[in-house]
Amino acid sequence: MFERILVANRGEIACRVMRTAQAMGVEVVAVYSDADRGAAHVALADRAVWIGGAAPSESYLRGEAIIAAALETGCGAIHPGYGFLSENPDFVAAVAAAGLVFIGPSAAAIRAMGLKDAAKALMEKAGVPVVPGYHGANQDPEHLAGAADAIGYPVLIKAVAGGGGKGMRLVEAPEVFMEALESAKGEARTAFGNADVLIEKYIQKPRHIEVQVFGDGSRAVHLFERDCSLQRRHQKVIEEAPAPGMTAEMRAAMGGAAVRAAEAIGYSGAGTVEFIVDGADGLRPDRFWFMEMNTRLQVEHPVTEAITGVDLVEWQLRVAAGEGLPARQEDLAINGHAFEARLYAEDVPKGFLPATGRLAHLAFPAGCRADSGVRAGDEISPWYDPMIAKVITHGPTRAVALRRLSSALERTEVAGTVTNLAFLGALAQHEGFARGEVDTGLIARDIDTLVVVPEPGPREVALAVLAGLDLLEGAPEAAGFALWQPLSREVRLMQGGEEIVARLTTLSSGAHDVEIGAVRVEARRVGGLWRLDGEPAAPVAVDGRRVTVFAGFGLSFDLIDPLDREGAAGADADIIEAPMPGVVKAVFAAPGQVVAKGDRLAVLEAMKMEHGLLAARDGVVAEVLARAGDQVSAGAALVRLEAGE
Ligand code: ADP
Ligand code: ADP
Ligand code: MG
């Protein structure tokens, strides 16, 4: 076994890998960027090496700097995690050339699966069913249109170099094929530097079922399937294992195909073979097709670990160190059911806009596995994926595991940034999902009911008032409350863009009444614990003037300072500002231009996504303060409108 390894990643996956390595007695070296000096993965490591600036291209994608760090610190191997350099064959070759072990497959195996078209051709030869379509070399638009006609509409255009759902276009009819082709190629060229596409039959109401494989370079086993059908815009949101409704016959067919795929390329280490499944008539062995292979540890690997009892990172280290496959196929079995939900800093009602912020508070309940790369006090920076954690639950049956997921999400406490927690909670309680009726369109179909904006009730408001004024703590006999008459005052708070006015009447240090409109809430301390109208108070976190009440997936309130009413009263409609740090992609406004409310005035690129910035009212552009290409910080003014009347 290695004495010391370097983990060439950050965030939750770096922490995840380090924990297993350390448990195996292997020392770990972290690498970090300027933005990650105080990050959790750095704190966890035995040593850490600085490798450059915050942008991934200046640090986590700098293969030579990472290899130099590994050599300098006496590491025997490099674990790439997922993302960044994990599927970069040139990096793998450079690691080997430096005399180090890459914990993962060979450069040749990664290359074989690197492009979707070549991978499909290879799989066809290995006898693995592939999605019907065209994956040839002829990229002439007329030829591709002809191929689409032959396949039959609807079709899906995919970037051969694609990943993360980018460069993909659904085309419903021949009239719009050319337009979709152009836009898919444009996106692919920008994102991957390769504009080539393939055309696939679009499977209606499909399920995404993938098989975890593990190889030793010649032989492979599979660790059953995961269902990742709960997706938003081709990105996974909740994953589970095993797949609901899976039959022994279908599992054997899919597992066998995945093992053939891995063995065909001499696969070593952990990998995932992704299939698209037509589940319209239940799961049938002739209704699944190879989509792509991810030649790395997958984000959702913990659900497989939960049902098999295998630590996949431990297996990765053992096989990379030269041991054979740790288990035979017949040694592996499924125990119960598991779910994983991806918790992100994102503003769901605002179209899942990635968010940033300092985590004032972060706590996960007992009864779940929470894989996280951030701690309370850490910053969700704009430089990287805004994932906060993966919440994983296990149970003897699907129903029990799902109930545990729902309960774990309800008891997860995050303050300091908006999150998708309420959205995940709504999904965990979705009736169709509970029945196992999953397909990749579920979220889009039910998006309106899933995007719930939690509204505080009077008890939550009352609690926020007391916490914000620091009245929950302190000894019952605190000074100043031995008053001859009740003390009454008005308190104002902002919640979800609305101002709430409450009247607080203090009866004693352990008794307050809070009136919100016509409703009165009685807060009483009983045996050292607060009760509101007799109900136990929810947990709260206070950070300056912000109070987060952990009810309804977290409700945050901002106490308004009576001296500072104007500032808190809402955004200035004259200024269009950057909602987060990023790069200005385009500006569509010029001084003197007449604009209408909702007009797109600029596009900001942040966290791999583009965000349109709209005029908040009708008006005339007074000033344009940013140009395409500018790097701007959150709150930077981009366009100013002439003062309204
Ligand atoms: P999974 O298949 O497990 O959902 P994804 O394919 O969504 O994983 O991506 C896993 C990780 O790799 C994520 O952190 C994502 O940000 C990163 N990633 C995916 N595709 C790319 C890409 N083309 N370039 C850079 N990072 C990527
Ligand atoms: P990426 O590399 O971006 O992960 P994939 O090829 O794995 O791209 O596809 C991502 C998702 O797109 C799938 O999980 C599925 O939801 C959808 N998808 C892919 N191919 C098809 C298809 N032929 N028909 C319907 N949906 C598809
Ligand atoms: Mg995929």
Unreliable runs = 477-484, 565-570
Q: Which architecture name of the largest domain does CATH use?
A: 2-Layer Sandwich
Mean pLDDT: 93
CATH topology of the largest domain: D-amino Acid Aminotransferase, Chain A, domain 1
Q: Please state the structural category.
A: alpha+beta
Let me know the CATH homologous superfamily of the largest domain: ATP-grasp fold, B domain
Number of strands: 40
Largest sheet: 9 strands, antiparallel
Describe the protein's architecture and organization.
By secondary structure, the protein is an alpha+beta fold. The protein folds into 5 domains: about 5-105, Rossmann fold (3-Layer(aba) Sandwich); about 130-200, ATP-grasp fold, A domain (Dna Ligase, domain 1); about 205-450, D-amino Acid Aminotransferase, Chain A, domain 1, CATH 3.30.470; about 460-570, Glycoprotein, Type 4 Pilin (2-Layer Sandwich); about 575-640, OB fold (Dihydrolipoamide Acetyltransferase, E2P) (Beta Barrel). It is about 25% helix and about 35% strand. The protein is built from 18 helices and 40 strands. The strands form 9 sheets. It has a 9-stranded antiparallel β-sheet with strand order 29-28-27-26-25-24-32-31-30, covered by helices on one side. An 8-stranded antiparallel β-sheet has the order 14-13-10-11-12-15-22-20, sandwiched between helices. A 5-stranded parallel β-sheet has the order 3-2-1-4-5. Helix 4 (about 90-95) packs antiparallel against helix 5 (about 105-115) and helix 12 packs antiparallel against helix 13 (about 420-430). The longest helix has 17 residues, at about 250-265. The chain is globular. The structure holds adenosine-5'-diphosphate (2 copies) and magnesium ion. One adenosine-5'-diphosphate binds near residues 156, 158, 234 and 291.
